Amino acid sequence: MNEIERRMTACGDGYPFLLKPVGTVLKSKFNIKNDKFVLYIYLLLSTRLDMKSSRIHAKIDGALLFEEVCAHVLKNYLGGSTAKALVFGTATKGSFKNKVETLCKELHEGAGFKNPNSAPVFDKDGKLDVVAWVPFSDLSVGQLIIFCQCKTGTAWEEDVAKLNPSAFISKWIDGTIAVLPVRSFCVSEACNRSRWNSLCIDAGLLFDRCRLVDFCDVMELNLKKNILNWTSSAATTATY
After folding, report:
1. pLDDT tens per residue across span 52-73
2. Which residue, among 127, 126, 84, 78, has the nearest Cα to 107 in the 3D structure?
């Protein structure tokens, strides 16, 4: 019950359940018009489902959809209309080289892709799933950038420290990025608060389910539609 009450506060009025006054009954207050409620239910299912065998519903990949959710949330967190975000991971088509070159063009930093080895490149995303930043009107280098890795499910703790912005830039980007990006980690699960401090030390800027819901306001219609379609199908056909 204490954890439920904590989530009510942490979700910023986005928790789609109501704890009855007697303290033992949890009642749904889901409303499809509330973006936060819609996102919470999706995050709940994408945590508890087997996202290896049960990630495709309504012809939508729930794990890749999570990267789009995280891009939206990070953009909101950085200021909404003044910020930008792009999905870099497997949800975006194209070669790793093309993704890096697109990233450099969007950021107006770095000179493009480089391969540090003589061997072919087999990386798909280099552990980088989403990039968000706040550009200046002068489009000069030196800006606040977030590099983020995203994970659904519950088996994610061993991955929290795998994204290394400095190593990614040194390895894959020709030239440099003037200000080292902030490392971030997004997870669909509501993290155990008894281990929160150590998780933040390992993960960087940590967004768990409640923090994602807290900053999900005003989702784009297509994103919300895909979340609703995936959630509706998953709730009735998924293997738990």
Report:
1. 888 999 999 999 999 999 999 9
2. 84
Instruction: Report residue 153 CA to chain centroid gap.
Output: 13
Number of compact structural domains in the chain? 1
Domain with 27 in it = 2-237
Q: State residue 10 phi and psi, 5-degree precision.
A: -65, -30
Any alpha helices (H) in 19-84, and if so which ranges?
A: 35-48, 62-77
The Cα-based distances of 194 to 120, 158, 190 in angstroms read 44, 17, 12
Would the pLDDT of 96 be above 80? yes
User: Which amino acid would we find at residue 191?
Assistant: C
Q: Are 230 and 60 in contact (CB under 8 A)?
A: yes
What DSSP line would sit under 178-200, residue for residue? SSPPEEEEEESS---GGGHHHHH
Determine contact, residues 168/148, Cβ cutoff 8 Å: no
Q: Which two tokens stand for residue 218?
A: 């005003």
Q: Any residues with CB less than 8 A from the CB of 205 and at least 6 apart, and which?
A: 146, 148, 182, 183, 184, 185
Q: Within its chain, how far is the Cα of 13 from the centroid?
A: 20
Question: What CATH number did the domain enclosing 40 receive?
Answer: 3.40.1350
Q: Is the CB of residue 40 less than 8 Å from the CB of residue 213? A: yes
Per the rule left: phi > 0, alpha: psi between -120 and 50, beta: everything else, 41 is alpha
Q: What is the tens place of the pLDDT at every residue in 124-169?
A: 899 999 999 999 999 999 999 999 999 999 999 999 999 999 999 9
